[in-house]
Amino acid sequence: LQHNIVSGINYKLSSKNPKNLLALNKLVKKSTANSIIATKPLSQRPGYQPNSSLKSLNLRKEYLLNPNTHTLSHLISKEKYEHLKVKAQDAISEGKIFCVSTNTNGSSAVRRALIKRGWIERFSTSDDKGNLHERLVRAPDAEALILSNFLKSRPVKFLWTDNSLNWSLIHPSTIVNKFPSTGISLWTKTGLLKFLQTQQWTNENGKSHVKFPRTFSIYNLDDLNYFCSEYRLTACVNMLKKFYYAILEDQNTTITEDGMVDIRSIDFAVERLCEYLGTYEHAYIDFWNLSVVSEVDWDNFLSDYYNFAHNGKKIRNTEKYELDKLITSIKACLDKIKIHWPEVQFEGTENLWLIKPSAQSCGRGIVIMKTLTEIRNHCLKRQPVIVQKYIERPLLIYNTKFDIRQWFVVTNTFPLKIYMYGKCYLRFCSKEYSLQNLHESVHLSNNSIQWRYEHIKKHNCKLPKQNMWDSDQFQEYLKNRGDLDKWNRIIIPGIRRGIIGAMLACQEGMSDRRNSFNLYGADFLLTEEFTPLLIEINSCPCMRNTTDVTARLCPMVLDDTVQVMTSGKPPSNTGHYQLIYDQFMGPEIPTRVFAEGNRDMMVSGSRAHLHTIPARLKELYAEPRLFQNYKKRNHWEDRSLKYDNLCWYKSKKPCLWIIASIDPKFGCAIPKYPGEPTPQEHILYVTKTIGRPEITKWMDTYRDRISRHLAKQDPQADHKRESIETKVHVLTPTS
């Protein structure tokens, strides 16, 4: 134990009898408080008498004091003792006192780095009265104990801990390896996602941009419904991609007479994507929702999608489509989707999704799913969760998936200052990559997961036995395949921009403490084009020596981290760290400028004269207009390429669109009818075009009003129009 030399107590602990540890702990505290440095053995001390109070503690014999125990004078000389005293005084005057929590992540390497730079450790004390047997560590040497005893009443200048802190008791000048909490769960998966979704407000051109897979936070049923709509849209894109690539490869084997998938599902997918494009570009901002697709329609489409994409079923051309025009239409649609949805290039066609717990680490609780039903059922049982699109086309090494762990340290938050470490390491999966096998050993590269499968025989002898490479080995691999330029041209700049962009987005939720810093570990996944995608950021990355690679790199990282924080501001030596971002905040306006009244901050103006507005504008804005004419984009033209056979859903044109078309003031064209129809014929034509019984019944109810309105025979046309609009807004697409 730490106090056995100074106190002259000789005892040992037995793991078989821990019930006396509480009494022993009291004895140690009592003897430590006295801490008499003797010059003779206890048995030769004047007036020595055996301590009879020990018997009342009911300790085993091996716990009792040994009268023949040698004290401090038998271990170090008096000259050495005086030298240590001077050394402690120098540490106090220079402010080189540090404290490292016993079981802290990477504590040994941090301790060695500080001692090497002339710092002295003050051992932390604990008032925990529980069983300390499992917390015991090897006692330091006598010199370290004596130095710590000299510094026990002095505040530390460097604190390294993973425990929660009472910041009101910590001096502002103390360097701490964490930032105070602001009450925002910043580094949980949900907290990070919340800030990354607002990165467009903090991005700096050319310096920061975070690329990350599509991610959704599921807290309630509304979030789940929104994800379901995204899943369906993704299925439409994947359906077209799968069909397009299959046709280019071999048309005869893709479309057969006995196929189980109706080719009209391809038309369904194209129509849904055209609606998405129109909504994304605000083409229908003045119209009602164009899509009236029931849940049954979506279920039928997803069933065809699963059969085609997952089960390999063939397409049946039931409508005798002209395939050349169909392929041209699909290609035009996919090209436009890529503009607004760039992730579609590397997301694949299987529609796989990762479901993660919102506040867990080390890969715990992560599952991979592909069907909407099982994802919905899983989310309903385990809210809140994170649902992230699985990257189905990652960069592979020897047909094995991997990711990259990159360290960086933030030394200041306002202004933001970031150092990125010059080395990183790769974490491999244990089994060969496959989209049919969704086991964690194939897809989750976390070291805490893959160590369970190290015994599995590698499918390639060139893969590392411990599933880990450092960045030097990865660069050698890129050099051998002729892609070494990708490291400095694509990978490192992409990682740098991702880290800067993420920290700028999260800066608002971070606290401003001048002498705090934090070491982070960012996980990136590379696509087939070597583009880094940010997966997550760990605020307390594992720095333990779990493999040969981490045993070599982690002590280097911690040593350079200590160097950055203890070598002044700005640091004179940063080791392998590189300053990648130093934010410019601009000059601050002194408070006295406002206090002394030296600046007039008031803005004055004059009243606008409304009579100067042109008469034409008065007419336009005299009363609000609910709808304005808007030039419709040509997405429907792109969809069909003026090819009637592609309009499978023409008979199910959206009912709200048709109803809105009745009044020209709504800004829509009336459906074409041969000749000059009467109002009654027009209503029948519109009803037949809709083709839905429930909508037909609704239209029959208001047939007379609509007829009178079209014929301009209703003197209260505006009143009737408002009534119709009210009913239309109440009507839901699913009904």
From TrEMBL:
Subcellular compartments: Cytoplasm
InterPro entries: TTL/TTLL_fam, TTLL_monoglycylase
Biological process terms in GO annotation: cilium assembly; cilium movement
PROSITE patterns per UniProt: TTL (PS51221)
Molecular function as annotated in GO: ATP binding; protein-glycine ligase activity, initiating
Keywords: ATP-binding, Cytoplasm, Ligase, Nucleotide-binding
Domain of life of the native organism: Eukaryota
GO terms under cellular component: axoneme; microtubule cytoskeleton
Transmembrane segment boundaries: none
The protein's name in its UniProt record: Putative tubulin glycylase 3a-like protein
Organism expressing this protein natively: Panstrongylus lignarius
Lineage start: Eukaryota, Metazoa, Ecdysozoa, Arthropoda, Hexapoda
